[in-house]
Design brief:
The protein is of the alpha/beta class. It contains 14 helices and 17 strands. It has helices spanning 41-59, 75-84, 88-105, 120-135, 213-225, 239-254, 285-290, 295-303, 315-339, 357-363, 368-387, 393-410, 422-436, 440-452; strands spanning 4-7, 12-15, 26-30, 64-68, 139-141, 147-149, 174-176, 179-181, 188-192, 209-211, 229-235, 259-265, 268-270, 273-274, 311-312, 455-460, 463-468. Strand 11 (229-235), helix 6 (239-254) and strand 12 form a beta-alpha-beta unit. Helix 1 packs across helix 12 (393-410), helix 5 (213-225) packs across helix 6 and helix 10 runs antiparallel to helix 11 (368-387). The longest helix is centred in the last third of the chain and has 25 residues, at 315-339. It is elongated. The chain binds adenosine monophosphate (AMP) and zinc ion. Residues 31, 217, 242 line the site of zinc ion.
């Protein structure tokens, strides 16, 4: 079956037809972090969805060229630097570093390029694009010295967001705050310097100032990926005005269709509200690591729901993620053991060989819920077959090979064997003896002592299992 994606532009699920996959890689542009503080896990939901997209395209044999920008100049970064009394570049450097550290913990593949908005090379390109827009009547300098995009001159403005511009229509000039824009919806391409900006300024034909956020992405996307891009992603909050503006600016300059497929992920919510800095209802990755969750558990928790469905963040959800990975780990350990068996017994089970169901689910607009559903059904059935001794070593190997393929997309395998501290191992051994003696009181007491050392002991058919405990939320 062909790959399909829901395109925000058409509001339809469309068959994926990249421009020229034989001659060049699939180009993907993803809006990156604004580095004025540490990203929260809501932001990382967006980056994990983009990671899943890239990995699935690669599983399907495509080469991918991905760019993610770093917004290191805007009102918030300038304010932050001013308050911290440090230069802008020093202020943003710490959050860039934190972003890369968190992305690595979450096993997010690095983009091929991470252009920064303050790079003179890109500022030059932004200035060049703005000049072209002015020369075509698509932009103008207002009395406040800033340059604005003239949305009335771009008939397609509003098409991505399916936004009815007549609601914003105005005749003549309107005063909007302190700005003198022609239309209330006109957005800044170049922001004239003011005192609040301190020493943050670039020279331009319109006087000193700095670029607007939207033009950054148009300039960096087209500079690195060309005028026509296969896929552009972000969270749904990016659709308007950011991505709408990117289309107007880029197409206003190149005259070509900027993006073929627009993919947007729904938000990570807390109690039904968007996780965001402004609401203060956010967690950063270190917040969750401190509670004892691992990068792969958080990755799983953020990935497991279809990207277009809102996902509510809960501690129960984190526990479910942990349980799902314990099941996967145990299944893999069991399969590995089975694969080493030398008996001549043949498989009689109906789960001898893997099918394509996992990747086919992802082909359908990255239906990760269905793909994971299939994974856990597989785990259940192959475990049952192993319980009944109906799965032979060669089938176990086939499933392990299948897992390798699946894990190229999910990247959820445990990194290393968990090392159990000697003291914990000793207590667990004692507990095994007390249980054999049916001394349940003592056994529970030992469980508590093990828990106090940060480990959870579970009793399974194969004996005790030890796992590191998360502190409760
Ligand atoms: P920002 O740093 O605010 O520009 O956001 C970076 C990325 O995170 C953008 O693609 C946003 O759409 C996305 N984003 C922000 N908040 C959330 C959230 N609560 N859930 C999912 N994505 C989000
Ligand atoms: Zn952007």
């Amino acid at each position: 079956m062909a790959l399909q994606f829901f395109n925000t532009y058409s509001r339809e699920v469309e068959e994926f037809e990249p421009r020229d996959p034989a001659a060049r890689p699939i180009s993907i542009y993803t809006c990156g972090p604004t580095v004025y503080s540490r990203a929260h896990i809501g932001n990382f939901r967006a980056y994990i969805f983009e990671d899943l997209l890239q990995r699935h395209l690669e599983l399907r044999g495509y080469k991918v060229h991905r760019v993610m920008n770093i917004t290191d100049v805007d009102d918030k970064t300038i304010r932050g630097a001013r308050e911290a009394k440090v230069p802008l570049s020093k202020f943003t450097a710490q959050f860039k570093e934190a972003f890369f550290e968190d992305a690595e913990t979450l096993r997010i593949k690095r983009a091929d390029e991470f252009p920064a908005a303050t790079d003179q090379h890109y500022v030059d390109r932004m200035i060049e694009m703005i000049s072209v827009l002015i020369s075509r009547g698509l932009a103008y300098q207002a009395d406040d010295k800033s340059v604005y995009f003239r949305i009335n001159k771009f008939p397609d403005y509003g098409k991505l967001a399916h936004f009815d511009l007549t609601q914003l229509q105005s005749t003549g000039r309107v005063k909007h705050d302190e700005y003198d824009k022609e239309h209330i919806g006109d957005f800044a391409l170049w922001k004239a310097w003011d005192e609040e900006d301190g020493d943050v300024a670039w020279e331009s034909p319109w006087g000193p100032g700095r670029p607007g956020w939207h033009i950054e992405c148009s300039a960096m996307a087209t500079a690195l990926l060309g005028d026509e891009i296969d896929i552009h992603c972000g969270g749904v909050d990016n659709i308007f005005p950011h991505h709408e503006a990117e289309i107007a600016q880029s197409e206003g300059v190149t005259g070509k269709k900027f993006v073929r497929y627009w993919l947007h992920c729904a938000h990570l919510l807390v109690d039904g509200q968007k996780m965001s800095k402004s609401l203060g209802n956010f967690y950063t990755l270190p917040d969750l690591l401190e509670k004892g969750y691992t990068g792969r558990e958080i990755r799983y928790a953020l990935m497991r729901v279809h990207y277009r469905a809102p996902l509510n963040f809960t501690w129960d959800g984190m526990q479910e993620a942990r349980q799902a990975l314990i099941r996967t780990d145990e299944w893999l350990a069991r399969l590995r053991e089975k694969s080493r068996e030398t008996s001549v017994q043949r498989s009689t089970s109906n789960v001898q060989r893997p099918t394509q169901e996992f990747e086919e689910a992802l082909d359908e607009d990255l239906n990760i819920s269905a793909a994971l559903g299939f994974l856990f059904e597989t785990i259940r059935e192959t475990n049952r077959a192993m319980d009944r001794n109906e799965l032979d070593a060669s089938s176990a190997n086939a499933w392990l090979d299948w897992w390798k393929r699946v894990n190229n997309v999910l990247d959820l395998e445990t990194e290393a064997e968990v090392v159990i501290p000697a003291e914990v191992a000793q207590l667990a051994k004692e507990r095994e003896n007390t249980r054999r003696e049916k001394n349940w009181r003592k056994s529970d007491e030992l469980r508590d002592r093990i828990a106090a050392l940060g480990w959870e002991v579970r009793d399974t058919n194969d004996g005790q299992k030890l796992t590191p405990r998360a502190s409760s939320g």
